[in-house]
Amino acid sequence: MINRRNILISAPAALLCAHAATAQSAGVTVEEVRAVFEQRDRGTRMMAQRGLQGEGYYTGPIDGAWGPGTAEAYRKLIASPRYQRHASGWTWSREAQVIDTLLFLNSDAFL
């Protein structure tokens, strides 16, 4: 037998938890991505640029350097429906979210 009182209490709690998870995952910034980008070795930075280039977000040289082209490419990526679809469900640490953003296009997990 279903207890209606428990359902009425549980439903708002579930919505609150879902909202909190979405709020936590929203809003990775280009500045956060830049900080992580600059901490990585040149090969990883170049791999990130290749991923951005492969999806048409980046048209600059693959040099592993952060510049206006890389920044704009990450702005476009973060605004894209594909990124938003995946990032809206992220509930792990902020640092992990930023790292996943950095290498988002280099992972089969986010196809």
Task: Walk me through what this model shows.
This is Peptidoglycan binding-like domain-containing protein. Keywords: Signal. Residues 1-23 form the signal peptide. The chain is an all-alpha fold and 111 residues long. The protein has one domain. 66% of the residues lie in helices and 0% in strands. The protein is built from six helices and no strands. It has helices spanning 4-25, 30-39, 42-54, 68-79, 81-87, 94-102. α2 packs across α4 and α2 (30-39) crosses α6 (94-102). The longest helix has 22 residues, at 4-25. The radius of gyration is 18 Å and the shape is globular. Mean pLDDT is 83; it is low at 6-25.
- Content-based structural category: mainly alpha
Task: State the domain count.
Answer: 1
pLDDT < 50 stretches:
6-25
The main sheet comes to: none
Anisotropy-based shape: globular
Keywords: Signal
Organism: Thalassorhabdomicrobium marinisediminis
Protein name: Peptidoglycan binding-like domain-containing protein
Signal peptide: 1-23
